[in-house]
Design a protein that fits this description.
The protein is α/β, with parallel strands linked by helices and 249 residues long. It is built from eight helices and nine strands.
Length: 249
Amino acid sequence: MSQSPSKPNTSLTDSPFARPDFFRDHRKGVPEVVLTSTKTVAQSLEIAARFLETRGRAILSHVSPELQTALEQRYADGQLEWHPASRMAVIRSATARQPQTNGIVGVITAGTSDQPIAEEAAILCQEMGCTVHTTCDVGVAGLHRLFAPLRMLIEDAQVDVIIVAAGMDGALPSVVSGLVDVPVIGLPTSIGYGMGGRGEAALLAMLQTCSPGLAVVNIDNGVGAGAIAGLIANRAARARSSAPEEIEP
């Protein structure tokens, strides 16, 4: 006679509308980010509370003004970290600490208008334990602005990977990728006007690059770019920590 499987504890995972992946970071190295734009305020608050209870941290993206107000009221004791440009929220318990992995990520934007999407990527990298160095508004319309920040990222910060966010013609990631010896992640943004103004032109330009070492995520996918960059940087950090020390001759 076969035994029926024991019923799992569903108190933290089951609800009428969500089954949060609380331990995605343990399995994948990337924490779950709760996309709130298509959820109600009540749903978003409940999911955030369950992450806070279970893991001590909740990360929410695309937060509406209504949800922002609700979060500020519920977490008025300082648990809420609010990022207005990207409209992302991180809620952290009093005992939770941001991880530190020694991965190093550079983030570059072609224009100030690309900052909200780039910030989304940077926040996820930070929540994955990486140190992030950001520089904005160094696009190809004034390419001379790029060289000093890029030199700082490569020579001083010694980044493991660079995210480059660009809209319009999307040319900057190809330029950066042609100059550096680390992986570059192209992040097309829906900035522009006319044909291709929703980011299509930038996406196609990045996909058609002839510069080696450039990978591309979808339009406005800051979370995707941050996840890839964080994984690359953290793997590089682990390799550095396990490498034998060089002995001076």
